[in-house]
Amino acid sequence: MAKATNTEIIDLLGHNFGEQLFDVSEPYGLLTFSTTKEKIIDVLTFLKENEKITFNFLTDITAVHYPEKEQIAVVYHLHSMVGGIRIRIKVFLNEREAKIPTATTLWNGANWMERETYDFFGVKFEGHPNLKRILNMDDLIVHPMLKQYPLEDPNRVDKKDEYFGR
After folding, report:
1. Where do the structural domains in the chain lie, given as residue ranges?
2. Which residues, at least 6 apart from 49, have a Cβ–Cβ distance to it below 8 Å?
3. Which of 17, 58, 88, 144 is least crowded, fewest Cβ atoms below 10 Å from its Cβ?
4. Which run of H or E residues covers position 63?
5. Segment 79-97, tens digit of pLDDT
């Protein structure tokens, strides 16, 4: 199988999903686009099962918090081992309603990635078989990667500038 180009992939996706894909770009040659939370599982299923492209490996699921827009972007990275190409898909969610369907129905490996994204960003993956904290303490009441929290405890005395000659 010849390596599919980004143009061929986006044409194939456009034929099947049309206006449900947007913000298409190619930063550093990595095909990147956005879709909606209603269509993400359909898009991921198509990318995984289409014999022309076969994105069979889920490399990563993470999130990015955009507090100025009150949004959280859930970001998926897929790799076609057969075609030797990678792709990035983004879904933007309202930070107050950060819910999206789980990808564990497609890849078992999504389990821990979604748990980590929930743990750090508070994104709820609907239908996840065991959505609970994976790295932080169970009784932690915040999601530490949200940008609304200070990077350090302002009360720490060992971080005062005068101790470092500043």
Report:
1. 6-147
2. none
3. 144
4. strand 57-66
5. 999 899 999 999 999 999 9
Q: Which amino acid is at 97?
A: E
**Distance of alpha carbon 65 from its chain centroid, rounded?**
11
pLDDT band at 2 (very low <50, low <70, confident <90, very high): low
90 DSSP 8-state letter? E
| Local structure of 24: helix, strand or coil | strand
Cα gap 161→121, rounded to integer Å: 30
Contact 123, 102 (CB under 8 A): no
Query: Helices marked H in the chain — which ranges?
Result: 6-17, 40-49, 110-121
Q: Which of the four CATH numbers 3.30.460.80, 1.10.3720.10, 3.90.1150.10, 3.90.700.10 does domain 6-147 have?
A: 3.30.460.80
pLDDT-derived band at 162, boundaries 50, 70, 90: confident
Determine the length of the chain.
166
What is residue 87's three-state secondary structure? strand
Q: What is the DSSP secondary-structure string of 114-140?
A: HHHHHHHH--EEET-TT---SSS-TT-
Measured over the CA atoms of residue 74, residue 122, residue 38 and residue 61, the dihedral's sign is positive
